[in-house]
Design goal:
FHA domain-containing protein, phosphoprotein, 1 helix, 212 residues, 22% strand, SMAD_FHA_dom_sf, FHA_dom, six-stranded antiparallel sheet, 11 strands, mainly beta
Length: 212
Amino acid sequence: APPAAPQETWGSPAPAAPQDAWGTPAAPAPPQQDAGTAAPAAPAPAAPAPAAPVAPAPSAPAVAEETSGGPWDEVDDRTRALATDDVEEDLEATRLSVIPPAPVRRSITLRMDDGAELRSERTVVVGRNPAAGDQEKPFVIKDDTRSVSKTHLRVDGTGDDVLVTDLGSTNGSAIVHPDGTREGLVQDTATILPVGAQVAIGDRVLTVERDQ
């Protein structure tokens, strides 16, 4: 019979392959690339992220052309023109309707030959018992001779000139000029009394003076 195979000297199996010093298996070697195969291209860089939008700087508020603003902002040009015309018409009407200053009131003084006198800013009616109108003032004359009529003479000194009018007296009236000449009055006709002249009514004499 063949002899038995000799055994290991120590009678124990062969030791295993040595491990890494730390007890972990070594990392496998990287696979070798074929010399004729090109390496894959590097990936393209990622597109940059879009920049955040920048808010525009606040601009200064526009200055309004008209400080008044208000209802005119919504009015068209035609309406503005019509409104302007209305204002001009109103102003013109206002100018035309201005009340003129009151006229200066003139006054006269009547003086009879016996010293009786009357000052008035209105028209005066002279006589023994004169019938004066609403805008007239009576000047009652005492006349024992009865040569003066009840309503004898009207004297109007409200204008630039003094006017005298005989009111249909029985004995008439006349202007007596400074030289003594007489000018008879026509009934119901106004006649200018010259400065310095007097009026004869019946047998009496009346002097009229313009007040300053």
